[in-house]
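Researcher: Quick sanity check before group meeting.
Model: Go ahead. Protein one:
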Amino acid sequence: MENMIHLMCLAVVVTLGSTGIDFAGALWIMADKIPTDGVVFAYSAYFRSVKPVRFQIWRPVVKESDDVHRLVGETWVVPSIENAKEDVNLHSASVEGEVRAGDRVGVYIEEVPGAVAYTFDPTPPFFLGGVFESIVSNEIVSFKSTFPFPYALSFSVYLDTNMTLYGVTGDPFPDCPKRLTIPSGTDI
């Protein structure tokens, strides 16, 4: 019997939008936490420009604190299209990362105009964010002094929660099974 793959989509609905973040160094992390351990195997986003963007995984430094996080993984993406949704499958890029329950997903805008579009959404939960000159792997950032961002960034992250397919856990870059794909609207 073949192992069942467990999929989870975390995110904000990928919606059309022409508005984006227009300052370099903007970093936004989701207020919602990843609810279970897994492996990131894809992202989807509505890109409004072809400027580089980094999808990031942030881990709390202290479990009881929502303020201080460490950058534990990121995927650098240069969109190939403008003003459209694009799927980014990571199993072929060898940049997947293991995530843990409690981690948060972030988006770092490297250049302007910011690649990921957003729509106004005044209902919580908000993103937390700020402007940082540069962010490097393992960097620790305090989001205590950041401000809530009342917008829905147009991206999704997809996790495989069946950790038995990846051998020994703790590998920061496990290879994803080739059969993982982003589900279509009828598969969800």
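Researcher: Fine. The other one?
Model: Protein two, sequence then structure:
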Amino acid sequence: MKCLTAIKLVAITSLGISTGGLAFSSYSLFKLSTDIKTQSSQALSNALNLTIKLAAFASIPLAWFAATAFSVAFTYAPLRARHPYLVYAAVGSLLSTGALAHLVRPALNAISKDPPRLKRSKKLASPKRKEEVSSLDDSIYVDLKESVSPEATTGVEADSDDDDASLEFKIKDSIYKDDTIKTVKVLKRGFAYSSSVGLVTILLATIGLAGDRS
């Protein structure tokens, strides 16, 4: 019985950590959605990657481990100790992340593309001034002549290329942020649902365990 109690405690603890991670991810997504327009594409990509990887590599595996532990506790318990709450807790653990697991993979694919970056031309305008000094009959004449060099022409072309690159960047950045907003909305619903189911399951399992020990 002590071994079964330990398994149940491990299951509840694992589910608690999983649910805490899901709740933190849900809060992070809510905070991200409030200022998504003011953040750079790179910052959005980093924040989403961190949130999704936390769920994919921590919360989801822990919830599945908890479901397995609840199932083991129910299977190997004596007939009189096979309480239904163990089955409910196992199912609740799977439900808390089952739908989320289907959301995480498409979200990973959606943000796997690198965010747009602004590429500027390395060619800069460098107009040269030619100063010619000539002397004639004890008089000094200083003529400043601007000569249009090939570098200056290249500089004008570079400015035009920069303008085109800036416009292209703004378009790609706007499209990337629109796709990110859609991804965040879907994940927000998923994380909110998962953390709520996980919390209810923890309460159910904790009450059931307290009833076993009373």
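Researcher: One line on it for the slide.
Model: Helices lie at 2-34, 41-75, 84-111, 150-213.
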